[in-house]
Amino acid sequence: MTDSSTRERARPRNEYPVREVAGGHLRVSTARGSGSVPLYRSLDEASDARVSRVVIVLHGRLRDADAYLLSTQRALAAADVNAADTLLLVPQFLAGADIAAHGLDQDMLHWEWTGWMGGDDALGPAPLSSFDVLDSLIESLADRARFGALREVVIAGHSGGAQVAHRYAVVGRATALLERQGVRCRYVIANPSSYVYFDNRRPDGNGGFSPADERACADVDTWKYGIHQPPRYASSAAFDTLEQRYVRSDVIYLLGEADCDPQHQALDRSCAAMAQGPHRLARGLAYFAYLGGRHTQLVHRCWQVPGVGHNGQAMFNSAEGMLALFDARARLGHVP
Fold first, then answer.
1. DSSP label at 84?
2. Which residue, of 31, 75, 111, 119, has the fewest CB within 10 Å?
3. What residue segments make up the domains of the chain, in order of their start?
4. What is the pLDDT of residue 140?
5. pLDDT tens profile 290-305
6. What is the CATH number of domain 3-326?
7. Do 39 and 91 touch, CB atoms closer than 8 A?
């Protein structure tokens, strides 16, 4: 076997072009420039006037937005809700290799392989953050002439998508528009590899928290693991204020009880991530305890999903997943 073929086999799964690109587009325009991202919708635009709930679903590191649309559609079909009133939106954060492989227009925003997870700016055609994309999508939902029946927006992600959902819940701007209109907003954060801590304390392995050794682990308290050196989108953020807003937000952490493999191939094993715990389940439980220790009136919820590991479809199609996404139980007699 040649060295080149060995290197090819060793490439991470996310460093290949995506199999499918969404046919719909979302236009994103700011003072920094403009571009488009692919977007899946579960209903056509003629349905917008009757939609009461929108669920924005954020894909994982493989950028397989089509798979996330399908798994969330299955969960919606299994939930005891009227699917005709619920719109699923799945934006797709592409890499440069996806543009070339699919012959896409150069107007399409694209990132370094995983830069979009932390809110980094796109590599082209304009330096826009994945958080700018969510701002634009949410701002479109605030158009009451178009979405007059809208009552609830859920921003949900699994794995890499959960990293986006969590960090957007901390620094994002646009949901304030919806809340002023009386639209409820909820964040569903399922099995991310890491979280944003608001000070330098990390789990000490004994159920408590101690200051991290920043000499041994230089990045432990910098973004995307801490609040220092945030991306351009949040460069002027007042994190004391944002923390207070975040802990008052409606947030559900969904943790797979079997997502506890410290050697999982997609687990962030950087020093800064390992300081948060040995695996995703431990990191999620520790983060929830950390926030609870800082805020006695924390309204967040943390639900464990029995028997499920690092599997987005299984998480969202679980009883806990359906309740988090749609405020609904499984339809009687329906097996997802």
1. G
2. 31
3. 3-326
4. 98
5. 999 999 999 999 999 9
6. 3.40.50.1820
7. yes
Are 68 and 19 spatial neighbours (Cβ–Cβ below 8 Å)?
no
Angle at alpha carbon of residue 135, lines to 32 and 250, rounded to 5° = 150
Paired tokens of 197: 């801590």
Whether the CA torsion 98, 96, 12, 158 is positive or negative: it is negative
Separation in Å, CA 310 to CA 265, 276, 283: 11, 18, 14
Contacts 24+ apart (CB under 8 A), 297-303: 297/247, 298/247, 299/247, 299/248, 299/249, 299/250, 299/251, 300/247, 300/249, 300/251, 300/252, 300/253, 301/251, 301/252, 301/253, 302/252, 302/253, 302/255, 303/252, 303/253, 303/254, 303/255
Beta strand residue intervals within the chain, DSSP E: 24-30, 33-41, 53-58, 86-91, 94-95, 110-111, 152-158, 184-190, 201-203, 209-211, 250-256, 301-305
Q: Which helix (H) or strand (E) element contains residue 269?
A: none
β pairing state of 250-256 and 301-305? parallel
| β-strands 86-91, 94-95 pairing | unpaired
